[in-house]
Amino acid sequence: MTARSADPELGNLEWRDEPGPKDVQAVRDLVACTGVFSSAEVAIAAELVAEALRCCAAAGYAFVFAERAGRLAGYTCFGPVPATASSHDLYWIAVHPEERGRGLGRALLARSEERIAAAGGQQVWIDSSARPDYAPAHRLYEAAGYRVEARLEHFYAPGDAKLVFARTVRRIGHRS
């Protein structure tokens, strides 16, 4: 699905859910230019797009892409956690440095949550490094209602803890 939006804060963006062949390199470039992810992480982000293109829905990865003037402005990758009833992982969220501060991260996260809820997902999990350069992402998650459920010391490297954020989402129109 492709849609255009003209949110005053975000400006003109094209939104889509389906990856295409050009997205493997576009995601690689976007994730690399953030300056936060290692070369191994950049390769993994691109590989998930390639896997989704090879295996389609069987890969278990879903995406939200936001483009401005033909350039990838931001994206998310998420999917159901195998062997759970309704948990989903948000594997990736990345926003181009030139797009930061406009609410694009918030919009990407909200669109991902809407798709997760529409698919019957109820719990969203996000793994993140505790390094200081991840603080803007942590503020985004917390502002969206996520809470830290776990901290695993020295997970990624000595002195680099893993934070596990979680939030419950509901289907639109569902009351609890």
Explain what the structure shows.
Strands 1-2-3-4-5-6-8-7 form an 8-stranded mixed β-sheet, sandwiched between helices. The protein contains 4 helices and 8 strands, in the order ββααβββαβαββ. The radius of gyration is 16 Å and the shape is globular. Strand 4 and strand 5 form a beta hairpin. The chain is 30% helix and 37% strand. Helix 1 runs antiparallel to helix 2.
What is the alpha-carbon Rg in Å? 16 Å
Show unreliable segments. Answer: none
Number of strands: 8
The percent of residues in helical segments reads 25-40%
SSE run: EEHHEEEHEHEE
- Quaternary structure of the protein: single chain
Number of DSSP helices? Answer: 4
| Strand proportion | 35-45%
**What best-fitting shape do the alpha-carbon axes yield?**
globular
Mean of the pLDDT scores?
A: 92
The largest β sheet comes out as: 8 strands, mixed
End-to-end separation: 30 Å
Strand order of the largest sheet: 1-2-3-4-5-6-8-7
- Main structural class: alpha+beta
